[in-house]
Design brief:
mainly alpha; 10 helices; globular
């Protein structure tokens, strides 16, 4: 049986080397203080991770409600925000803690992923087209995706109501509350630095990587485009985390990132449709039904391939606008 414990975090309730509401110099902190460029890295981490944790908790009831597609989506967003924060600030977090927490967050994301993928497939890709007279051949996909979606939701619910998820919630809460990332450090100076310059440097590094890719975007493979989509999302999450600690012009950058990210999402639609249709076909009870599902999937993928081609004229100017931001 796999070991699901988070050993670097376990025991944190009784191991408080530093009071959780005090800074590195022993001064009492105001937990409600507004995050600004001069806020310490330590305090900024507490505020950011607590906000993502609260979003996670608020999303759980809706995610556990059958047929509530938005609930699972919002919960996955909160988990991705937590993971993006762990990644962005990884140099300020003991490696063993970061890896243990990230592995468990990834487990939960993966458990919820199929349900979310099928929600998008059904509501955003299939249903808008299936009621048209010219696309009646797509209706064979409706019962297949409904059955697959119900099964995926049962698996998601099993994960959300599991002891493993409960422990993960508790571990993250204790990790944030006790600022466990302070433990095991010889030099604590990096945590006392102001977050503004620190996070700008980290985000600029991510932005530089993305800019290189946008400069050759037409040459990127489907896999590379998907990776770029993820990189843009991470930058946008980082800006969202530290909005009040960054220059105001960064919000314009966030809007450009959102637009470009949406357009790149359209490029992924065709590939996603083909992949999901292939999975649905495997569940068909007869060879005839399997062939009908595959055929409908191919036609739906062809439609979104054309949609992807239509997205390119919007992508080029967005990339050009993005390249104007050489640094935050």
């Amino acid at each position: 049986m796999p070991n699901h414990t988070l050993s670097p975090v376990s025991g944190a309730r009784t191991d408080r080397a530093v009071a959780p509401h005090m800074d590195l110099n022993g001064h009492v902190l105001r937990s409600a203080q507004r995050l600004g460029p001069d806020t310490s890295v330590d305090e900024a981490m507490a505020l950011v991770f607590r906000a993502a944790q609260e979003q996670w908790l608020k999303a759980v009831p809706a995610a556990c409600t059958p047929r509530n597609a938005e609930g699972i989506h919002q919960l996955r967003v909160s988990l991705r925000r937590l993971r993006s924060g762990l990644s962005l600030l990884r140099r300020h977090i003991p490696q063993s803690q970061r890896r243990a927490l990230d592995a468990e967050l990834k487990w939960l994301l993966d458990a919820l992923g199929p349900a979310r993928d099928l929600d998008v497939f059904q509501h955003e890709l299939l249903m808008p087209l299936s009621n048209k007279k010219s696309t009646k051949h797509l209706q064979v996909l409706i019962p297949a995706v409904a059955a697959a979606r119900a099964a995926a939701q049962r698996k998601a619910l099993a994960a959300l109501t599991s002891n493993r998820h409960r422990k993960l919630l508790d571990d993250v809460a204790v990790w944030v509350e006790t600022r466990r990332w302070r433990s095991g450090r010889v030099i604590k100076a990096p945590l006392a630095k102001p977050i503004g310059p620190v996070v700008r440097k980290l985000l600029n590094k991510q932005l530089g990587k993305a800019l290189k890719q946008t400069g050759r975007i037409k040459k990127l493979s489907v896999e590379d485009l998907h990776d770029l989509h993820i990189d843009l999302k991470r930058i946008r999450y980082g800006i969202g985390h530290f909005k009040t600690a960054l220059p105001k012009r960064t919000q314009k950058l966030a809007r450009i990132l959102t637009g470009l990210q949406d357009q790149l999402g359209h490029l992924n639609d065709a590939a996603n449709v083909a992949e999901i249709a292939a999975r649905l076909a495997k569940t068909a009870s007869t060879a005839r039904d399997r062939q009908r599902i595959l055929s409908a999937g191919e036609k739906l993928a062809a439609y979104y391939s054309k949609t992807a081609a239509d997205a390119w004229p919007d992508i080029k100017p967005r990339c050009k606008a993005l390249r104007k931001f050489e640094a935050i």
